[in-house]
Write a structure and sequence with these properties.
With about 325 residues, the protein is of the alpha+beta class. The protein has ten helices and eleven strands. The longest helix is centred in the middle third of the chain and has 20 residues. Bound molecules: L-homoserine.
Length: about 325
């Protein structure tokens, strides 16, 4: 018998991961959004409520709400004969660089799929959720929704057609996601990017991105640390995130393997080795940089995580 209502946990994600702009993404153990969908009479998707962290900033308009757009795409693709109402509990603040809109989109698609008599394959949900992401950021990028749906480390091999490769990262890979109280809308952070890339920088990125993918698959933390570099995107976006470089230096000094801009920012993401550190000194070092400037900074000391799943508390 088909479900009437279901709640899904949709994890936060870090996109780009250094050299992989719009290509690499990493699912986090926490935080996460909770997306609940319920079958309703009539067609179409309605957003009933958005609560939680930054919930007031999230639109209830079903044409622009990422979870609603993604859920509607799933219903349309499956030719479903019912409508849905959606409720979202945000654990991932909007404009954070931690895949807030992507988590809601992934959760909306995944939850709607669970109500279908014949669910679509997970790969098809990536395309549906990407439409939700597009409604929010203005461009179709799938490097947050892919890891939020599939978990682990994901690589967008191609956008047309959409093809994703998933890699299981090493179990000892820890992540500190530090979030200063600064808002960076993704649309704005994309608007300032260059349209052309210098050939020398392209060569640098191909080398580092390839090595990073191999390092993730092999579980080679030293190679992850050496290959996680970005010469194209982060330098242009750094002015949008005050004290970014200082925060990254503090994280490295406190033992991080790498520290870099999470997604479009302002998240400062730092990787660490769980076998030799518990990650807290890294979180404290970044928080201290912002505290000195009078800026609040939240932090999650976590690891990489699995993708969307049914939430049964
Ligand atoms: N790849 C996207 C960007 C991710 O950097 O604009 C947004 O979180």
């Amino acid at each position: 018998m088909s479900l009437e209502r279901v709640t899904v946990l949709a994890p936060a994600t870090i996109a780009n991961v250094g050299p992989g702009f719009d290509v690499f993404g990493l699912a986090l153990g926490e935080p996460y959004d909770l997306v609940t969908v319920e079958r309703r009479q009539g067609r179409g998707v309605k957003v009933r409520k958005v609560e939680g962290l930054g919930g007031k900033q999230v639109t209830l308009d079903p044409q622009r709400n990422t979870a609603a757009v993604a859920a509607a795409e799933v219903l349309e693709l499956a030719k479903a004969d019912f409508g849905l109402s959606v409720r979202i509990k945000k654990g991932v603040r909007p404009c954070s660089g931690m895949g807030s809109s992507g988590a809601s989109a992934a959760g909306g698609a995944y939850a709607a799929n669970l109500l279908l008599e014949r669910p679509l394959p997970l790969e098809a949900l990536v395309g549906c959720a990407a439409k939700g992401e597009e409604a929010s950021s203005g461009t179709l990028h799938a490097d947050n929704i892919a890891p939020s749906l599939l978990g682990g480390f994901t690589i967008i091999l191609s956008y047309e057609p959409l093809e994703v490769v998933r890699v299981t990262p090493p179990p000892n890979l820890g992540i500190v996601a530090s979030l200063p109280d600064i808002m960076v809308p993704t649309k704005e952070a994309r608007g300032i990017l260059p349209k052309q890339v210098d050939l020398k920088k392209m060569v640098f990125h191909v080398g580092h991105a390839s090595a990073l993918a191999v390092a993730m698959a092999r579980g080679d933390l030293a190679l992850i640390s050496r290959s996680l570099k970005d010469e194209v995107i982060e330098p242009v976006r750094a002015p949008l995130v005050p004290h970014l470089k200082e925060a990254e230096r503090a994280a490295l000094k406190a033992g991080a393997l790498s520290s870099f801009l999470g997604g479009s920012g302002p998240c400062v993401a730092s990787l660490y080795d769980k076998d030799t550190s518990d990650g807290r000194p890294i979180a404290e070092a970044v928080q201290e940089v912002y505290r000195r400037q009078g800026i609040e900074c939240a932090a999650w000391v976590t690891g990489w995580g699995e993708g969307c799943r049914r939430w049964e508390p």
